[in-house]
Amino acid sequence: MPLSIPRGFSTPSRGFVNFPPLIMAKSKTPVGNMVIAQSGGPTMVINQSLIGAVLEAKKHRQIKNIYGSLHGIAGILGENFIDLRKESAATLEAVAKTPSSGLGSVRKKPTKDDCLAIFHVLQKYDVRYFFYIGGNDTAETTHIINEEAKANNYLLQCFHIPKTIDNDLRENDHTPGFGSGARFVAEAFMGDNLDNRALPGVKINIIMGRHAGFLTAAAALARVHPGDGPHLVYLPERPFDENKFARDVGRVYAKLGRCVVAVSEGICDKNGTAIAAKLSKEVDSHGNVQLSGSGALGDLLSGIIKNKTKISRVRADTFGYLQRSFPDMASSVDSTEAREVGKLAVRHAVAAKKQSGSVTINRKAGKKYAPSYGLVELRKVSKDTRHMPDKFIHKDANDVTPAFIAYAKPLVGKLPVIGRFKGVRVKKVK
Fold this sequence. Notes:
With 430 residues, the chain is an alpha/beta fold. 34% of the residues lie in helices and 15% in strands. Helix 1 runs antiparallel to helix 3, helix 4 crosses helix 5 and helix 8 packs across helix 9.
């Protein structure tokens, strides 16, 4: 059921709501209600950001009611809100530790008409604080809403809270969701390497990340013993050549009698066109081509190996959505930082120094890992993506460097211990 309209408001038959004079707190920030929403692909720690923001909002008298919009801006347009002040502390903490989007998610880029409708709803419910949790497309949506708010002289504290397993937000060293997604990838490859060692062959795994290779690169963290896979890692930051791919696999197989391969869903040809984009024409409202959700890329790569080598046992899996919401897989660092960016977004909003922005995470200089938080303009984070830096990519374009391992390890945390026999052979009896 939609929430009731706050007292003192009336809804005209057309146009915006007639609302009382704006109340300002001593801090020069508005007094009003808050809406928080989630957008884009879920993660294992996105709810930590949500609950961090909600609990922080409860501390500030400028923020009255705290509304959760169901399924992002679609919930605002449909006036589908839940009252988050009515949830118990135990429920909030349980949701925080639960993967996937507690409020539901959406992939929707607002049109001009959507923005006008959004403001109609925001005014109707006296919303003066808007927080949107998501990736670069979500930051773009937040930026659009913020610009429209300014154009309509509507005072709205409008903040983006970072989230993406792809780790591709500009102005950030890393983003909440990546550390836990990377942990899943590393542990999955640990298991797959053990399977492949027991029953040798070629195993190809397709990993999310779109046009950034960070998540695929995390597969390299699975290596514990000499000869462990993944033996080859292919990233979207380097052109993919199927003939070189077949030669690489053939070389590893000749040496080890097996080969485990990590491949990004976003690998591109020499012209920069994603291979998977040639296999699917589905796009979302932001213009993103569907790269995951199908085993087509894995089947294509398996076929290349079978056709160009003499290897008969070739298998492929697409990790797909398992990487986003797997229970009991969250990195402790990722969880802590996800909650912190939610809290900081609210603090920035009520501090009156900025009317909008995107919270960032970078790392402090020094040997021991420590995060550093900041705030940047929405436009700097929205729309465009960052990529793996060259220093993380092997010169042969089929692996990562030690620099990447050092970068990723503290974000992923301690991984399971993998035991192995010494393998002392018994002499054959004559």
